[in-house]
Specification:
Radius of gyration: 22 Å
Strand content: 5-15%
Order of helices and strands: HHHHHHHHEEEEEEEEEEEEEE
Mean pLDDT: 94
Number of strands: 14
Distance between the termini: 64 Å
Shape: globular
Low-confidence stretches: none
Bound molecules: acetyl coenzyme *A
Helix content: 40-55%
Structural class: alpha/beta
Number of helices: 8
Strand order of the largest sheet: 1-4-7-10-13
Length: 269
Amino acid sequence: MNEEFYLHIYNKQLEIEAVPSNQEVAEWAMNLMNLLYPERLTSPDYSINEIKRLFLKQEKELVRILNGTKACENCNNEAVARKIFESIPELYRRMNTDISAILEGDPAAKSEFEIIRSYPGFLAISLYRIAHALLQAEIPIVPRILTEYAHSITGIDIHPGAVIGEYLYIDHGTGLVIGETTVIGNYVKLYQGVTLGALSVEKYMVNIKRHPTIEDHVIIYSGATILGGDTVIGSNCIIGGNVWLTKSVPPHSTVYHQSAVKVIETKQP
Ligand SMILES: CC(=O)SCCNC(=O)CCNC(=O)[C@H](O)C(C)(C)COP(=O)(O)OP(=O)(O)OC[C@H]1O[C@@H](n2cnc3c(N)ncnc32)[C@H](O)[C@@H]1OP(=O)(O)O
């Protein structure tokens, strides 16, 4: 490597926005999850006072993260963190609706404990819900770091800008992508490989609704792709596996391809 290369890296350092490391952001969120769901820990036995102290510690840690985020240097970070933590009971209530949706919808789910401990869908939704609250408080960059952390450990990519109702059920979830301007109602079920995306992706579309709206009680089976900001999947629809949809669908519809698979028995020699 020559001097020019080292100089290039050195100069890049000077331009970098001060933002706490991705690891610090992820640790903060996972510690919050451990507090909200002590089922995630081995035999926790905190007193009520210790629980209060730990929540306060998390709030202060958020202030520290926000103070380290240069783009937000004029924000009142104490007030922002206070507001976020005041909304934690409501976030927790919403997360619990997601647990109920999984427990009631998935024949393989045996208990809340199992969902809290092992379901990637629940973890991804929970981290999205925290990130969405941070985004609503106009905190820069940190929400996206958080959902991309969730993406890296679960394979589920939910943009923090998506608006998602209660009782979201994600089963398996690997390869699920929910774009920035998606709107999802209540009691929606999503399976692995579903894409809620933009019809085409161009930079000028930055402030345009590019991703679909999914109304209440819709089931979208594995591998389905639903595209476009004007595409509305009406309530109580079932979208079959691998369906490719760029148009709206009226409520109570079932959408699936006709099977193109032919099974031809080959004669034994
Ligand atoms: C681990 C896990 O289990 S994760 C969950 C994975 N499972 C899924 O994602 C389920 C996906 N299910 C589907 O897509 C279903 O077909 C549904 C729910 C949309 C519709 O189900 P049904 O109304 O029962 O339709 P049915 O099974 O009778 O199919 C009717 C015909 O359409 C075909 N068909 C149905 N869905 C599809 C599809 N997604 N793609 C291609 N062909 C399909 C069937 O093969 C059948 O063809 P045939 O008449 O030539 O035999």
